[in-house]
């Protein structure tokens, strides 16, 4: 999950929109989209 989250953050830093970045990271690392979204929400607070 940590690798997926780090990848998500790197995609966002590259200019990806969150929904696309989340889908790509979740698919690449075979993790839950919802859990990844919740992790990102917690990170942003």
Overview features:
single chain, 45 residues, mainly alpha, 3 helices, 0% strand, globular
Walk me through the topology.
Blueprint: H1 2-13, H2 18-29, H3 33-44
Care to describe what's here?
It is a single chain. The protein has 45 residues and is mainly α. Helices cover 80% and strands 0% of the residues. The chain has 3 helices and no strands.
How would you describe the shape? globular
Discrete helix count:
3
**Mean pLDDT across every amino acid position:** 97
Written as H for each helix and E for each strand, in order along the chain, the element string is HHH
Structural class: mainly alpha
Tally of DSSP β-strands: 0
- Poorly predicted spans: none
Compute the separation of the termini in Å.
Answer: 19 Å
> What composes the largest sheet?
none
Helix content: over 70%
User: What's the Cα radius of gyration?
Assistant: 9 Å
Which strand-content bin applies to the residues? under 5%
In short:
By secondary structure, the protein is mainly alpha-helical. It has helices at 2-13, 18-29, 33-44.
